[in-house]
Design goal:
Number of strands: 0
Order of helices and strands: HHHHHHHHHH
Number of domains: 2
Strand content: under 5%
Radius of gyration: 19 Å
Mean pLDDT: 86
Structural class: mainly alpha
Helix content: over 70%
Largest sheet: none
Low-confidence stretches: 1-11
CATH topology of the largest domain: Tetracycline Repressor, domain 2
Distance between the termini: 70 Å
Length: 199
């Protein structure tokens, strides 16, 4: 007779996968803010300390669960430092640099998954909202303004549309246009969505 295991899992090869599965479920269902590390550990059947051992912070666990090809904590500080009136340009330049790199292949796969799966879309939406756009709004001091959510959504729509047409649909001449041409054309719109009039 085979007796099933009881209690919490140890640090077995399956532990990391169990944590990621539990994290994806929690982030998709409850969002980043309301998903707790303790609840994720309980669902995975592990001690919470193992999550920190494998992934570090909650933000790092979220990034691993989503398999996002770039770390906003590394990318955004440089884009957000300097003249606030040029943050749209720096933000777009940083984003295009990621998508034009080998990481763009993983990003494209993630976008395609989000287009075909509500579960994947929920994870990506939560990531973009809490890990990217929220940081941008806070850095500009507009996170508590009445139109903050609208500004964030407009920025996301502009960048997501650009990603879709340039990297997934490969619509010409946008697909092969030099990065500088795209930045010159699109960055002013992103800047207006962030700090300009939108009424």
């Amino acid at each position: 007779m085979v007796v099933g295991r009881t209690g919490r899992r140890s640090g077995s090869p399956d532990t990391r996968g169990a944590i990621l599965d539990a994290a994806r479920q929690a982030f998709a269902e409850r969002g980043f803010d309301r998903a707790s590390m303790r609840a994720i550990a309980t669902t995975a059947g592990v001690d919470p300390s193992l999550i920190h051992h494998y992934f570090g912070t909650k933000e790092q666990l979220f990034q691993a669960a989503l398999e996002f090809p770039m770390n906003p904590q590394e990318l955004l500080p440089q884009a957000l430092s300097g003249d606030p009136d040029q943050v749209g340009e720096r933000l777009l330049a940083a984003g295009l640099a990621v998508w034009d790199s080998p990481a763009g292949v993983a990003g494209a796969a993630l976008m395609r998954s989000a287009m075909s799966s509500e579960w994947s879309a929920a994870l990506l939406r939560e990531f973009v909202t809490t890990q990217v756009l929220r940081r941008v709004l806070v850095s500009l001091g507009i996170d508590r303004s009445p139109e903050a959510d609208l500004r964030a959504a407009l920025v996301a729509s502009q960048i997501a549309g650009l990603i879709m047409t340039r990297y997934l649909l490969k619509l010409e001449p946008l697909a092969s246009a030099p990065r500088e041409v795209i930045i010159t054309a699109v960055a002013p719109t992103i800047q207006r969505y962030l700090t300009g009039p939108i009424a």
